[in-house]
Design goal:
5 helices; single chain; alpha+beta; two-stranded antiparallel ribbon
Length: about 150
């Protein structure tokens, strides 16, 4: 498989060689039939292992206290916690960024939008498990001071 440097804002970006499709899938998740950057999960995992540090650093720079999709798929130690509402995961469905990729809630006239499931935020998840990087801790402290 040939890798090409991807272009960012008209210039070649510094970093590992990934196609646009591969970088998109590792960052945002696979879109079967729309963007096929990898032929199988084994190749995707190998690319993640090789480019992990670069992709995490880039994600933190763009959106601190979050992680790329591949981190959730291959490294997250546990699912995000349900903090409110009721969730019924569909059998056999996986997780998408730490929450069930397909789920429903009880179809009951007494259930309203307040009872719909809500999960802990990515930032709280990372903080709770001690997974924040050094600069991210300062970002959370700044946000908490502003509130």
């Amino acid at each position: 498989m040939t890798n090409y440097r991807y272009r960012q804002r008209g210039r070649i970006a510094k970093g590992p060689e990934l196609t646009f499709e591969q970088k998109f899938e590792l960052t945002c998740g696979p879109w079967p039939g729309v963007m096929d950057g990898f032929s199988n999960e084994k190749d995707m995992l190998a690319a993640w292992v090789r480019h992990r540090a670069f992709l995490i650093a880039e994600r933190i720079k763009e959106k601190p206290c979050t992680r790329p999709w591949a981190w959730w798929a291959f490294e997250s130690p546990e699912p995000r916690q349900l903090i409110k509402g009721v969730c019924i995961p569909f059998p056999g469905c996986g997780l998408w960024c730490g929450i069930p990729s397909r789920y429903s809630w009880p179809n009951d006239d007494n259930i309203n939008s307040v009872d719909r499931p809500q999960w802990e935020s990515e930032s709280y998840y990372l903080w709770r498990l001690g997974l924040l990087m050094e600069g991210e801790k300062a970002v959370l402290e700044t946000i908490n001071e502003e509130e």
